[in-house]
Design brief:
39% helix, single chain, five-stranded mixed sheet, eight-stranded mixed sheet, alpha+beta
Length: 422
């Protein structure tokens, strides 16, 4: 017997019924994306490595430790997509989308790849939904993005969701803050681990949200970016908060929130969920006004977010309830081969009209078929035995009430369409 071949570490298969739950998540998200005026975009699974080095930042953990990078047969360095914003911005620049009416609003769902320690809801291959709005520096667009992502969580009924928000300042205020923070860290370099000193030399802001206790101890008295915002950045931040207040979105200002990507400017935000434990982040994003220019396009502001579907699934099922089973609208229980043949055209046409149909293919008894019908989640069951077939009718059973009635075979399709068509 050959050895089993299993999925790579840090990945997993998505089986029913979780796939049904994922479909519900995407349906809720796509409906809100439509309502907010976002169009769907798809980018390649792998990109030139330079895109992420320039776009995400060479000092980030993603670029330094987590990317799946390889040389193709032409000797070019390629990387499996670790995050969604840089590829969307690359497409925006490449296709001249800055010439379209602005802002250009785009959303996506795609697999992401990061070599990190696998844990619940965090895999080396995970699926993300995300959105990017490019072409406006209006702080109300930041608030809109936050409301959109929060709306997805609310529509899905995820409890215990909270919003953290901060600002990383604009160009001038951020540069001044980085200089001040760098000077502070240099004065405390002896108290920092070697890796932290290296990261601080590349980008001192990477240490603001560090998890290492030694780094956290040094950062306790470090200057805070929210206290160093220039007039323009402070006004932008205040407008975002006022907009959230106006629509009743609760938030906590968190000066340690910097997110894990170097391209962010001004607004940064993260949603957390009580159900996810210590690793509570469920999604987030922010503004990135310099990224389009960094990737070769004209100066173009942007704001966006991403949320891992695995994290959403984990939040929805954390109470121990299994994902919804989904399944059929109508179960067809035919007791003879002739009955199955007679019902096959009816089932095919109903499926074409959007009615989910299933039936027995194992030669089960009537008792077995009724048990299977209940397990399928079907709202109705069509029963067709020798007698019914000879008399030209079927028995239609309501699976909730148990009530049964006879329906002529010639009318069966129209009755089921009327009662079960989406």
């Amino acid at each position: 017997m050959s050895a089993k071949v299993e999925a790579p570490k840090g990945t997993r298969d998505v089986l029913p019924p979780e796939s049904v739950l994922r479909a519900r998540i995407l349906a809720a998200a796509s409906g809100l994306f439509d309502a907010y005026g976002y169009g769907r975009i798809a980018t390649p699974t792998f990109e030139q490595t330079e895109l992420f080095v320039r776009g995400v930042g060479g000092s980030t953990d993603i670029v330094r430790k987590e990317m799946y990078t390889f040389d193709d047969l032409g000797g070019r360095s390629m990387t499996l997509r670790p995050e969604g914003t840089a590829p969307v911005v690359r497409a925006f620049v490449e296709h001249g989308m800055h010439k379209l009416p602005l802002p250009v609003k785009l959303w996506y769902t795609a697999p992401m790849f990061r070599y990190e320690a696998p844990q619940a809801g965090r895999l080396r291959e995970h699926t993300q939904i995300g959105a990017e709005a490019l072409g406006s520096d209006d702080p109300l667009l930041d608030a809109e993005a936050i409301a959109l992502l929060g709306g997805i969580y609310a529509q899905l009924g995820i409890p215990g969701v909270h919003l953290r928000i901060s600002s990383l300042g604009d160009g001038p205020s951020r540069a001044a803050y980085r200089d001040e923070l760098s000077a502070y860290l240099q004065a405390h370099a002896a108290d920092l681990p070697a890796d932290a000193r290296e990261r601080a030399a590349e980008n001192p802001m990477r240490l603001v949200d560090a998890k290492d206790p030694a780094v956290q101890a040094v950062m306790t008295d470090a200057p805070r970016i929210l206290e160093r915002l220039g007039d323009d950045a402070a006004a932008h931040h205040a407008t975002v908060l006022a907009a959230l207040d106006a629509v009743g979105i609760a938030y906590v200002e968190d000066p340690t929130l910097v997110r894990g990507l170097d391209y962010y400017t001004k607004t940064v935000f993260e949603f957390t969920c009580d159900r996810l434990g210590a690793q509570s982040g469920i999604g987030g994003g922010g503004r990135y006004d310099g990224l389009v220019a960094e990737l070769g396009g004209p100066p173009t502001p942007g704001v966006g977010f991403g949320s891992g579907i695995e994290r959403i699934v984990l939040a929805l099922t954390a109470d121990g309830d299994p994902p919804p089973a989904g399944g059929a609208d109508v179960y067809f229980a035919a007791l003879t081969p002739e009955g199955r043949a007679a019902l096959f055209p009816v089932m095919t046409r109903l499926r074409g009209a959007g009615v989910a149909c299933t039936g027995d293919h194992q030669g089960r008894s009537m008792k077995g078929m009724m048990k299977q019908a209940a397990a399928s989640g079907a709202a109705a069951c069509v029963i067709l035995g020798e007698r019914e077939l000879a008399e030209g009718h079927a028995t239609l059973r309501d699976m909730t009430s148990g009530e049964q009635r006879e329906v002529a075979l010639a009318q069966l399709e129209s009755v089921l369409l009327k009662e079960h068509r989406p």
